[in-house]
Amino acid sequence: MKLKAVLFSFSVLAYTGFAAQNIQNNPGSNHGNRFEQLGTILPTPNIYRTASGAPGHGYWQNRADYDITAYLDEDKRNLKGSETITYYNNSPDDLDYIWLQLDENEQSTVKNAGFQFPSTLPAFSNDQQLKATDLPEKDNGYGVNLEKVTDASGNPLKYTVNKTMMRIDLPKVLKKGEKLIFKVDWNYNIPNRIKMGGRGGYENFAEDGNDLYTMTQWYPRMCVYSDFHGWQNHQFTGRGEFALVFGNFKVSMNVPADHIVGGTGECKNYEQVLSSNQMARYRKAESAAEPIEIVTLDEAKKAEKNHSKQRKTWSFEANDVRDFAWTSSRKFVWDGMRVTIPENNNKVMAMSFYPKEAYNLYRKYSTKAVAHTIKTYSEFTIPYPYPVAQSVEAANGMEYPMICFNFGRTEKDGTYSEGTKNGMIGVVIHEVGHNFFPMIVNSDERQWSWMDEGLNTFTEYLTEEKWDNKFPSKRGPAWTITDYMKLPKDQLEPIMSNSENIIQFGPNAYSKPATGLNILRETIMGRELFDKAFKTYAKRWAFKHPEPADFFRTMEDASGEDLDWFWRGWFYGTDPVDIAIDKVTVAVPDLNTLPKEAKETKYKVEKPLQNSFEDISKIRNKEDKNITFSVDKDKDLQDFYYRYDRGQEKLYADKEYTVKTDAGIPLDAKDKEKFKNLTGYQIDFVNKGGLVMPIILEFTFEDGSKLYDKSSAQIWRQNEQKVSKTYYFDKKIKSIQLDPMRETADIDTSNNLWASNGTDTQVSKFQLFKQKQGGGPVRGGANGKVNPMQAAGKKN
Question: What is the DSSP code (8-state) at residue 280?
Answer without folding.
Answer: H
